Amino acid sequence: MLLVGVVVVSAGIGPVHVGPIAVAKVFANAIAVPAGVRMEATALAAPWHAVEWYAPFGYDVDPLYSTIVLQVRLPRIAAGASVGFALAAAGTVMQGLFRNPMADPSIIGVSSGASVGAVAAIVAPVALPFGLGLRASAFVGALVAAVVVYAIATEGGRTPVATLLLAGVAVQTFLGSVTSYLILRSGDSIEEVTYWLMGHLDASRIEEALITGGISFALVVVLYLYAEDLNALLLGETDARSVGVEVEWTKRILLAASSIITGAAVAISGVIGFVGLIVPHALRLIVGPDHRILLPTSALAGASFLVAADTLARSGPAELPVGIVTAAVGAPFFLYLLRKREVSEL
Amino acid sequence: MIDIDGLCVDRSGVRVLADVSLSVADGEFVALVGPNGAGKSTLLGAVGGHLSRAAGSVAVDGDEVGSLSARALARRVATVPQETNFGFDFSVRDVVEMGRHPYRSRFSGDDPDGAAAVERALDRTRTTQFADRSVASLSGGEKQRVLLARALAQSVPTLLLDEPTASLDINHQVRTLDLVAGLEETVVAAIHDLDLAARYCDRVVLLADGSVQAVGTPRAVFTADRLERVFGVDVTVGENPATGTVTVTPTAGVSLGSESD
């Protein structure tokens, strides 16, 4: 509900103001349901063209508003919601898995790997194999980094989270130096590189946002099935095993799913800090540590938070990368929560 | 029922359990005693399926522990760890309900006997009155009872307890062991306090340097000679006038230096 409200309000804010009612009407008009299938000769070759769509709503709105809302703002809002959903969900899982509230989605090197991939794609696109684009290159970089960290930290079929954490830090540092080197060599494209690294949502097409959103949603459903195992893991691996959790298998599933989610998010948005750290943390203070509740609420709150932050980023006098806004808004809020909790516990 | 045969366990290249064989019958309460580093926790860990073995077999109710899935094993054996870090703010009931994990289906979450098992476990450990409090707010003794409640909620025939009384005051030590001794479940517990082991347990297993030194009733195992050799300290073995059970008192002439003899 909060997410829907934030999306409607956000779609109305911008250089051209569109009232929330008008936004709601634009969205309603855009709803189309498949009404039937035309029986034509081409139906077999291209079945999707044969579907007849029926739009149940026909509100009278200014076509200019329609264009602004659906063509200009919606892709960006969809990107914000998808990325926020993904980062907050992955952050929740990483914090639980590492039993550390300071863990975030990039803890096992995913974001650093994505940065190397993306910067390489910008600086030296010809050097990439298979003609990978920027997004694909960032995604591949993210997954390669995660797999390398996992492999380094695994010995004899076991992956202690403490080792995973340290391997993640080391690989992040290494990848950071690779990124720095690539930046030095970037020449004219340095502005594009810096912009990507800061995190942004404006370059996304709606198809890209939907791919990230779809991947994230599907994997969050998988993660949700492991919510109870993650609860047990919070008490430690020995405890989790003694209540019947297949510890190593569960860790593998959780790490893989959250790395893919994070990679899919970072690929379209660049590195947006703090969402995956602060949103799960804030929600844990509100709804408690039970992942059956925490995971879905945190993912939805992450989506709302990032859409709101991006609205703020693009409605100022000069448009800012959203990564700057999330950090600038997030850090003080995080400190506030920290203080408040300490005070109430003492 | 537990059957251990020729068990060897290595840790970082050092043999910490060497050729341990032991059988525990249904309903028995067996204490593992011995000096620090004797291998008591390791032995419990091997039965609980927490570590890999160099050699030997460990069977619970007739099936090799290594051949059972974590879920299947958790329906037969429950472990009460020495220490659990309750860094996150779960309620007591949440923690006890985790004991039902091996019975809940991943997709539907169904567990028809769950609610009753949780209530019974809370009741048996007298933790019902703080069921809705945060575990982080409890004292050491209360946390210990919550972990015992979680193990009871698992509805298993065999419980493994690692130092269940180590962090408790004398009142809670006695209350906890009274409770454990009254259970119909098979219990294997690592216990430091020899007097408490003698008072509550049917049999004791004396471990030292990773191997079994003696097994039997407390009265048979706790002889002054044997305890002096194993612990490296002079002891007097007597009878506790209040309980009528064996009592072991370390006396003067502590000779830590002769430990390696």
Automatic annotation (TrEMBL), chain B:
Catalytic activity of the protein: an R-cob(III)alamin(out) + ATP + H2O = an R-cob(III)alamin(in) + ADP + phosphate + H(+)
Key words, A-Z: ATP-binding, Nucleotide-binding, Translocase, Transport
Pfam families: ABC_tran
SUPFAM superfamilies: P-loop containing nucleoside triphosphate hydrolases (SSF52540)
UniProt key word Ribonucleoprotein: no
EC number annotated for this UniProt entry: 7.6.2.8
UniProt subunit comment: The complex is composed of two ATP-binding proteins (BtuD), two transmembrane proteins (BtuC) and a solute-binding protein (BtuF).
CDD domains referenced in this protein's UniProt entry, alphabetically: ABC_Iron-Siderophores_B12_Hemin (cd03214)
Domain ABC transporter, chain residue ranges per copy: 2-234
Function field: Required for corrinoid utilization. Probably part of the ABC transporter complex BtuCDF involved in cobalamin (vitamin B12) import. Probably responsible for energy coupling to the transport system.
Organism annotation: Halosegnis rubeus
Keyword Translocase set for record: yes
InterPro entries reported for this sequence: AAA+_ATPase, ABC_transporter-like_ATP-bd, ABC_transporter-like_CS, P-loop_NTPase
Matching PANTHER family: HEMIN IMPORT ATP-BINDING PROTEIN HMUV
PROSITE patterns listed in its UniProt record: ABC_TRANSPORTER_1, ABC_TRANSPORTER_2
Protein name: Cobalamin import ATP-binding protein BtuD
Molecular function terms from GO: ABC-type vitamin B12 transporter activity; ATP binding; ATP hydrolysis activity
Highest taxon in the source lineage: Archaea
